[in-house]
Amino acid sequence: MARFLLVAEQSELWAEARSSLHPVRVHTSGLTGVVEVELGGERPLLAPPTQVELEVRRLRSGNALVDGELQRRIDPRSYPSIRAELIGVAPTASGDRLRLSGTLTFHGITRTLEVEVTVRHAGPSTVVIEGGQAIDVRDFGLPPPSFLMFKIQPEVQVKARLVARRAD
Fold this sequence. Notes:
Blueprint: E1 2-6, E2 12-19, E3 24-29, E4 32-38, E5 45-55, H1 64-74, E6 81-91, E7 98-106, E8 109-121, E9 126-136, E10 146-147, E11 150-166
Antiparallel strand pairs: 1-4, 1-11, 2-3, 2-11, 4-5, 5-6, 6-7, 7-8, 8-9, 9-11, 10-11
C-alpha cells in the first residue's frame, strides 16, 4: 500500500446545474486529501482510508448574483468543507473502471454514494483519478436556489479530476 497526497492546484471539481435560463457551472481547484493506493497489479487500486476535502468558499460560478446566493445557502461559516471518504472498491465489468462506495458530507449531512472512476498512472509517482456523479442537493438539506424568475434544478452533475503524488 502506498500513500499519495492530492496536488491541490491540479485537483479540480466541476459542477453543473440546469436552470430556467441557462446552465450554472462551477469550477474550482484546491481539493486536498490522502489517497491510499495498492500498487502491483496492472492498474492502481484505491483503498480506504482515502479522503478528499474541499473548502466550500472555493465554489464559484463567476456570476456574482449566483455566487452570492450559493454562498448564502451553503453557509460556509457553519459548514466550511465538503468531505468524501472511501468505504469500498470493486472492479466494474469493463475492467478499466472502479466502482467506489463512500460517504459524502456536505452542509452537515452525510450520505453514502457510489461512483465509477478511472485510476491511472501519470508518471512513476503520480496517479490520476477521474469520475463523476449526479447529486440531488435536497439530499443534503439544501433547497435549490431560485430568485425572481430564475430557478435552478436540484440535480447537479459533479465531476472531479484528482491528481496525487506519492508521499513516501
